[in-house]
């Protein structure tokens, strides 16, 4: 059997709420020469049943079952099991745009000196309402500069990388759990070039159970360790201002306040007021609530009340009601996409 061109690796832990949309967004890609490896990391919900149904619908989907071992072990297992020379990372609560695999595959095919490529994202909330667009530097030096200054280099679930490079650096390191993607990009930057496309490739979900919201203090400490190591490997000392202290890493740096402000910047009226409502009902300090509310409204108005009247900008978020309907009836589609020649 001929190996596919791309292996999509998705880790799943209790992901039933968004899993159908995530899986369907891969099945309906314009680029069809792929396999999808789903690592079910000991889910206790209906994730396993959904995965088995999709695998029945499309033989390109492989399920790797295991007891709960955590995101790093699950991601490594999926990536090491990949049959393709290119690995596409995907989270079970995100949604890929239909052209994602095609544009990233084309770039990696045409740029053999690059070991990884990312893309732009649309951040969405747990209701799939838009929060705002986000993009990153496109060229290698600026991406590495981001990585060495605590900033994001590539969005992990929007990335595609060479399996040979992943194997060469030893995959994700368990000791850097919760900043494992940042660590991987730093090490891959020594194997070849990194790049970000300007194409919008993914709807990236933010919600209260996201790592950055729940584990901010631990992430801060691990990032301090990671940057210290990265600078030492480059024969330098890490600038003291990059080693954040506890007081500099507030728990309120994410969540409803941040999401309201982000949605306001993008002009998404409904999302802004929804998250301001959640913020005002939260147990955050009133000083923080007041500041976030003021900043959000100021951004939303954008200097003109007409922006509120005009409403939110139009953004397209892929949806798959037919897959939900078929799953509800437990019917297998009469035909599934065939592997491209």
TrEMBL record:
GO MF terms held by the record? glycosyltransferase activity
* EC number assigned by the record: 2.4.-.-
The regions listed as transmembrane in this protein's record are none
A Pfam family this chain is assigned to: Glycos_transf_2
Domain (Glycosyltransferase 2-like) ranges: 7-168
Recorded hits in SUPFAM superfamilies, A to Z, give: Nucleotide-diphospho-sugar transferases
Q: Which UniProt keywords apply?
A: Glycosyltransferase, Transferase
- Which InterPro entries did the record assign? Glyco_trans_2-like (IPR001173), Glycosyltransf_2 (IPR050834), Nucleotide-diphossugar_trans (IPR029044)
User: Where is composition skewed (Polar residues) in this entry?
Assistant: 328-341
Region: Disordered; residue ranges are 322-341
Name the family: Belongs to the glycosyltransferase 2 family.
Under which name does UniProt file this protein?
A: Glycosyltransferase EpsE
Q: Which organism is it from?
A: Aureliella helgolandensis
What taxonomic classification does the UniProt entry list for its organism? Bacteria, Pseudomonadati, Planctomycetota, Planctomycetia, Pirellulales
Name the encoding gene, please.
epsE_3
